[in-house]
Amino acid sequence: MSEYLSAAQIGMPQLATFASPGSLVESGVSAARGLASAVDPFPHLGLAMRFKVEVTDLEAGVSLGNWTSCEGLRVEFKYEAIRSGGDYASTHFLPSHVAYGQVTLRRAVETQYSRQIKNWLALFATQWESAEGEPTLGTTVTISLFDVYQDPIAPAAQWQLQNAFPVSWTGPSMNAKSSEIASETLVLEHSGFLDDPA
Question: Model's pTM, two decimal places?
């Protein structure tokens, strides 16, 4: 079996064969798939359309559900370039700081998860407006990317955004003449995902 079968065939193997249910061919194919799965035939490649976002604060964990897109997972190593006087052939690079980009999440408005994100934003708004200074840092936003096996315990990749908090939320633009699905956008600020949260 090739390692490079399409994601559609891997995710929906019933589309890859046309054997009738209960036939010898179907039984043979099922047996072959079972044997193949035992030796883990497919590489653990992260599938861009399979990811979820969870928020864990100091009190309880909240799932923000599935999103259509996630952008901004980025780390930059800032530096200052120094030229020594009289040395025109070389440049010295002095480390400055490590910078992380804001993470932007987008998805269609959905009753359950849109209500959860509204409640989560309300908690931060209360802290922000109470003039207690910096919001409660310690909130971890976990972004998990899954492969074809979709194992929640062993995702293909995972980023835990430390000390994360919402920068902005944008609701849908509504137009009675449009047939598009309403969407929402959440922007998160954080202090990084390279540290071990433990």
Answer: 0.67
Alpha helices in the chain (DSSP H): 7-11, 24-38, 111-129
Check: CB of residue 16 under 8 Å from CB of residue 33.
no
**Per-residue pLDDT, 163:** 87
Predicted confidence (pLDDT) at residue 61 exceeds the cutoff of 80: no
CA–CA distance, 93 with 78 (Å, rounded to integer): 10
Cα–Cα distance for residue pair 166/171, rounded to 1 Å? 14
What is residue 159's three-state secondary structure?
strand
**Whose CA is closest to 70, among 103, 23, 112, 29?**
103
- Angle at CA of residue 160, ends 128 and 135, nearest 5°: 10
DSSP state of 5: -
Task: Locate the DSSP E strands across 67-117.
Answer: 69-71, 75-82, 92-100, 103-108
- CB neighbours of residue 76 within 10 Å: 10
